[in-house]
Amino acid sequence: MLKHIWIAISVLFFTTISFPQENYVFEHFSIPEGLSNPTVQSILQDSYGFLWVGTADGLNRYDGYEFKIYKNDPDDPKSLPAGGAMWTLAEDHDGNLWIGGQNILVRYDRKNDNFIPIQLDRSLTNASNLRVFKIFVDSKNRIWLNTRRNGIHLIDPETFSTTAMRVFDNKGKEITPSASFTIIETQQEEILISDFVNGVLRYNEKENWFEVFNIPKLSRGGVIKIFEDDFNRLWIAYWKGNLLRYNPATEQLETIDIYKSIKTEISDPTIFSIYKDQDGFLWFGTITTGLFKYNPVTDEFTHFYSDISKPNNLHGNGISSILQDQFGILWIGTFTSGLNKVDPKKQPFNVYRLPQELRKNNFDDNINAITKIKNSDD
Description:
By secondary structure, the chain is mainly beta. The chain has a single domain (2-359), classed as Methylamine Dehydrogenase, Chain H. Helix content is 6%, strand content 37%. The protein has helices at residues 2-18, 356-359; strands at 27-29, 40-45, 51-55, 59-62, 67-70, 86-91, 97-101, 104-109, 114-117, 132-137, 143-147, 152-155, 162-165, 167-168, 174-175, 183-185, 191-195, 199-204, 209-212, 223-228, 234-238, 243-247, 252-256, 271-276, 282-286, 291-295, 300-304, 319-324, 330-334, 339-342. The strands form seven sheets. Strands 15-14-19-18-17-16 form a six-stranded mixed β-sheet, with no helix packed on it. A four-stranded antiparallel β-sheet has the order 1-30-29-28, with no helix packed on it. A hairpin with a 5-residue loop joins β6 and β7. The longest helix is centred in the first third of the chain and has 17 residues, at 2-18. Mean pLDDT is 87; it is low at 1-21.
């Protein structure tokens, strides 16, 4: 009898250990923890190990212990420009840090701990209101940036001068690029850019211009995010719309419903951030509905949602940015609730206590040894 009870307890205990729930513990950073502003726009870990966090008011450098805040100083011409939000951060192969945002395009001078403004090539457009949405460094150390009304630019990594790039549609007509939130490099070393009006743009290396990437049946208007997974498939997210997955090999375009397990109404289905971690899982950050983890092996999504009644839960359901650092820690930026930190490999222990009827038979909660035994009817 006692042996059968011990077997039952052992099976329960080890089954739980073998198949743990994804009950992550989130650590939260906002103004009380030293962050300059709770609206996080961008996150980057540089080659020196520093974590940089761009917010709606100030750039933050985190050394693992505290934040150092950079803001505009009217008396210092080499401080950050006055403007506000810092939407994008990138580091080139030479260790230069680039910052872009609302009326901001600067290079960080590490030696002097200040910032050097970068002037745009105005040959193709002369919009006065500079909005740099994305800066991207490719495998050849070319520095790409896209803007709201100033087009697409290429920065020379040696002279730091910029060149405006021309864009053409499928009929060879020159067009003006629209707002763009994503620049990626595919495994075939192609540069792709999302375009809010024209869909997806592809860099023509031979002609040195961009052209509309013709994806069959793809609706062009509203594309804000593109991402390539390990299977060369393109994930395409729309503003207030669908998430699509395109396979270039088969030209198959399918709709992916990450919200199918959610029973409540989704006020805004926009997916604003897509990220692949070191274990191959994809993470999707949404505007209003929290965070989703995608397992490409099982083709399943796990949902993480903010719950104010649980202090170690995700803070904020509007996810702006996702980054995994060199130690495997995930950093998740939000639009209104600061920065979340979580170790995907570290999960809390579940505590199991003996039921009252076993305690009456001289059992207690003191565990002296643990072993795994085979099932037996003996």
